Predict the structure.
Amino acid sequence: MTGDSLTRDNEVRHIQWAFSLDDAPTLPLTGENHPLRQELAKWLSWANLVTILLTAAVFGGWYI
């Protein structure tokens, strides 16, 4: 490893499942096209679904 912790043999480390920037035109993007805004929408959608299902399961267990 070189002095920079993010590089190894001139390759930048990245998370495989993270939002890809391959289709991004140029950076920095602003507004709805920003990759982090799109990633945020995905994570908020999953968080809402998990919360609703967990709440329904807890309420169902309490009600029955």
About this structure: The longest strand covers residues 7-8. The CA atoms of residues 1 and 38 lie 32 Å apart. Strands lie at 7-8, 11-12. The chain has a mean pLDDT of 77.
